[in-house]
Amino acid sequence: PAMDYAGLAEAAAEKMGLYRRDPGGWRGCRRTSEVSVSWRPSAEFAGNVYRGEGILPASPHDVWECIKPVAGGPRTKWDQNVKDFEVVEAVSDTVSICRTTTPSAFMRIISPREFVDVVLMKQFEDGTMLSAATNVEHPLCPPQPNFVRGFNYPCGCFCIPLPGEPDRTQLLSFFQTDLGGYLPQTVVDSFFPASIAGFYSNLTKAVKALKA
Where is each START domain found (predicted)? Predict the structure, then answer.
């Protein structure tokens, strides 16, 4: 039977809303000038869900331009964890099936990965924009020989306007990824906080460059 891509995407967005409204149980694990990262055990798989929160020096529109999941978007240029991003199928105006490949990481301990996700883009009445995703299977995306298939469980980013501060944006993001393969848990546990800190740092540089 065909997968209900739109339904899965909506469910991932719902979950993002729940995480956003549920402040309990998060344990801080890393803080930089750009982001504070916390985690708690995932209810979706045998790993953790990570929460990143930071304020970016740009308007919500500019931040969204840098992170929105579209073909040919700037993300492959600034995000060191995204090597290639393609839209495999546009399900609707707001829902698409995407394939992301990542380069090797962590001194090559983590080999290149590929992820196939359904992604939903949504705008709320207060101007907040959300991109939410979760793993799916798709006939046009059989596993590739040179990649380990990883799985994103419900994850996403909220670009939240700050009242009275048009040139600043709160970015709240949730990452929940099974990297697949046979990685020591210690590697996984150190990779994500470092990777999220890098994401915010590189995104901050990207939005500054966009404004320059």
Answer: 1-212
Q: Spell out the alpha helix ranges (H) of the chain.
A: 5-21, 60-67, 75-78, 185-211
Q: State how far the Cα of 162 lies from the Cα of 158, in Å rounded to an integer.
A: 12
- Assign residue 165 a region (left: φ > 0; alpha: ψ between -120 and 50; beta: otherwise): beta
State the architecture of 5-211 in CATH terms. Answer: 2-Layer Sandwich (3.30)
Which sequence spans correspond to the domains of the chain? Answer: 5-211
Cα 176 to chain centroid, rounded: 8
Cβ count within 10 A of residue 143? 11
Cα–Cα dist 156/1, whole Å? 27
Its pTM surpasses 0.90: yes
Q: Report which of 69, 55, 57 is spatially closest to residue 99, judged by C-alpha positions.
A: 69
If you average pLDDT over residues 182-200, what whole number do you get?
A: 93
Largest separation between any pair of C-alpha atoms in the chain: 50
- Amino acid letter for position 125: E
